[in-house]
Amino acid sequence: MASSSAASRDLQKELEAKANDLSKIQKDISKNHQVRKKYTIQLGENELVLKELDLLDDDANVYKLIGPVLVKQDMAEANANVRKRIEYISAELKRLDSTLRDLEEKQNSKKEAIFKVQQRIQSLQAGKDKA
Amino acid sequence: MGDHVKGTVTSLSSVFAPEDAQKASVRVQEAISERQKEVQQLQAFLNDNASLVNLVKKLPDQLHHDIMVPFGKAAFFPGRLIHTNEFMVLLGEGYYAERTSKQTVEILKRRGKDLDSQIETLNAVIKDLKFEASFFDETATEAAEGIVEIREEYDEEASNEDKATPAVMRKDSTHRLSRPPICDDDFAHILSRIDELEKEELEAEIAEEAEGKEEADISRLISSMAIEPEVSNSKLKESPDIPVSKDSPIKVPTPSGSNTNVRLVEHNKLKESLPCTPAPSNVVEVPTIASNSGNDSSRTGVSAPASKEVSNYGSGSSNDRSKAFTGSIVEHTHNNENNQKGQTPAPASRPVSRFKMQRK
Description:
The structure holds 2 protein chains of 2 kinds. Chain A is built from 2 helices and 2 strands; from the N terminus they run H-E-E-H. Chain A has a two-stranded antiparallel sheet. By secondary structure, chain B is mainly alpha-helical. Chain A: GO terms for molecular function: protein-folding chaperone binding; unfolded protein binding. Chain A: Keywords: Chaperone, Coiled coil.
């Protein structure tokens, strides 16, 4: 009896540790989601800008707000800058995707492990009840 | 009763505690209100955009406008707008372009369209979430009512054996009940419980007969019954001899007496609703077919593949009690799925079980 209660205490501890790990992973995931949201919004904005730039006449005046001042920019230059920015954001999003997938895998395996521990605790308790 | 078949009876409330389901529902509600706020914000943007379009259209009507120019936070001074057809439009990301009024209006209209589509997608998301929320509520009430879930591995061989060696058989004037395959201990316990409840129910039923029914609850249950998936014919053919019972939904209520009336009504209603489901043609050896609805329950009973099922205990003659007990399973497909992804992760490793309820 004593040994079984000790075992169940060990299992409880294990469960707690695993639960902590899991919550850490989940925190990472939610952080990842936030960053991704930010980038997605930026991507949308940049695409909008690109669309509008494409619609502008070639001789239109385009300015970029740098700090407090508007700096006149070449159309071609502005276009290239926006494209580059979009490329960068897409790459970043891809990177975030892959890390997210990693994290989710980790999360699932942790969940499974937790479930196993829970089952062991349950079976232990069931055994105790019978005894 | 076949010892070779293992099955479990879990009360729904132990798998999804009512409080948990409630919590999940609350969380979904929060998500919904969040989305609604977003929609409102977007709507406000859209309105701003529309009024801006109007203003931009109007400005070039005159060569100049006398205005009050804001100066700091609190002060204004009189000024005059000239160049009324030249706009510096922010394209986003710090890019500005010089545009005429007409061109500006075009840009603004394109933006308005974008906002519209965003609102549309958000509304779709809200619809989904609302559906989810209603499901969680349903689960919560079902768990609170004490519905149990009966799971059993589907084993073709076993079921064949069963028909070869028919065990105790039971009939009763209206319902034939078969024992759900469950562990003996549990089973004995449940059986005794059912005895009590059956008696209670019988009494209550008589009293109930005259009373008005609680339609809302019932219709909810009925609708959940309607979700049960069609059973593939092949399955039925494989085990054609499994006897069926009339009232598939067996509800084993929790002891709380206050629920009794409601449950009874549901039980009755369920029986009525059953005949609407298509009856499989190949039902064999139903010793006492109580009514044509027997076929229907065979469908549900035999093959509904797992999940939360409603069980009603047979309300029939109480003297049959010791043997009369039908477990059968009703599937709530979407419920199950949602549950697993939605809230307390249902143990994923649990095998999809099949039931065949009727072994006698």
